[in-house]
Amino acid sequence: MHALVEPVVAWFDEHARDLPWRAPGRTAWGVLVSEVMLQQTPVARVEPVWRAWMQRWPTAADLAAAGPDDVLRAWGRLGYPRRALRLQECARTVVEHHGGELPADEAALLALPGIGTYTAAAVTAFARGRRSVVVDTNVRRVLARALEGRALPDPHLSAAELRRAGDVVPDDDATAARWNAAVMELGALVCTARAPRCGACPVATTCRWRLAGMPADELAHRRRRQAWQGTDRQARGALMAALRDAPGPLPAATLARAWPDDAQRARALTSLVVDGLAVVDDGAGGAVRLPGGAA
Ligand code: SF4
């Protein structure tokens, strides 16, 4: 077994957060919902939304039957709301082709709408307790530091990096699943991007980056800083918030109050319509609503 596994899993046994999608009664579907929500949103924001969501739509069949406007409202401020619609599409496929049960096989999971390599691997490990190679930004950071002596991994995951991550994953299902959860948690709680807490780290004595004196990130100049203020993404977010909060279609003039810049609002609205997140009612003076909502 790789030398990192034992100390990191032992650390996890003691420090794992008590999260609802890790509770004994969780379902595979609930784990999938959590993974989709967690992809671009922190745990603290996901947790209350996940709880309310799973209470309202505990199964794939429940979500498949929901109105897309209700789904987008329940998604709330998690961001990247296309994820919500893709999740519902996934639920419909699970109902139509898998009798409402999430398939156990990783390849079958990958074939579902909106399920990429990461999510299929995460569900395989965390819901099924089976061996898979789970690689997210947290895992990549821990491995880059502990094994390669680098401040951060490359901007994009390569096949070679995925192979190296796979070399560390133990062979047996139970330990592999535990390792995946443990190393991800270590990256989230201890080996953080900006301020790693090496004093609390179970692999501090062997971490190559720490032993090398924590050299600076050699790719800092290539990393994209994601701006938010004043961007089209912010405009999209403001329009989506206004549409979610409105009980019905919003007149164009009301929507203008959500984002006053005409050109940017028009661009943002067009992109929302293209993504299936908003509908413009031609017959109602250009009123805008969520898909599936009453016209
Ligand atoms: Fe990360 Fe520090 Fe642990 Fe190395 S010693 S893995 S940098 S927390």
Structural write-up:
Among the domains are: 27-126, Hypothetical protein, domain 2 (Endonuclease III, domain 1); 232-289. A two-stranded antiparallel ribbon has the order 1-2. With 295 residues, the chain is mostly helical. The chain has helices spanning 5-15, 28-38, 43-56, 60-64, 68-75, 82-98, 106-110, 117-126, 137-148, 159-168, 173-189, 208-211, 232-245, 252-258, 262-274; strands spanning 279-281, 287-289. A hairpin with a 5-residue loop joins strand 1 and strand 2 (287-289). The structure holds iron/sulfur cluster (SF4).
> How are the strands of the largest sheet arranged?
1-2
- Put simply, the count of helices is 15
Beta-strand proportion: under 5%
CATH architecture of the domain at 27-126: Orthogonal Bundle
The computed structural class is: mainly alpha
Q: Kindly report the oligomeric state of this protein.
A: single chain
CATH topology of the domain at 27-126: Endonuclease III, domain 1
Residue share in helix: 40-55%
Which CATH first-tier class of the domain at 27-126 would you pick? Mainly Alpha
Gap from first CA to last CA: 60 Å
Q: Could you list the spans in which at least 5 consecutive residues all have pLDDT below 50?
A: none
What can be said about the biggest beta sheet?
2 strands, antiparallel
CATH superfamily of the domain at 27-126: Hypothetical protein, domain 2
Which H/E pattern describes the elements?
HHHHHHHHHHHHHHHEE
